[in-house]
Specification:
Protein name: Phospholipase A2 domain-containing protein
Number of domains: 1
Helix content: over 70%
Order of helices and strands: HHH
Organism: Pomacea canaliculata
GO biological process, one term: lipid catabolic process
Strand content: under 5%
Number of helices: 3
GO molecular function, one term: calcium ion binding
Pfam families: PLA2G12
Shape: elongated
Largest sheet: none
Radius of gyration: 17 Å
């Protein structure tokens, strides 16, 4: 699930770059590099924040257990 969220995040950032592709090539290249860097950051460092937010958001029935 986290991987899907991360992929959606990257796609969203890349769409923003694509919408602004009429700017200077260097600026567009920088936008893509930024998007890829943000994606790498959430892939590398985002597991704990993702799990913590899922724990807070999950209602796992009568058992009260959260199964990630």
């Amino acid at each position: 699930m986290k991987e899907s969220c991360d992929d959606d995040f990257r796609s969203c950032l890349r769409r923003i770059c694509k919408r602004n592709s009429n700017v200077l090539k260097e600026a567009n290249d920088a936008c893509k590099s930024f998007a890829d860097g943000m994606y790498a950051g959430v892939m590398a460092l985002g597991c704990k924040p993702y799990r913590d937010s899922q724990k807070q958001a999950c209602d796992c029935g009568d058992s009260g257990k959260i199964d990630l």
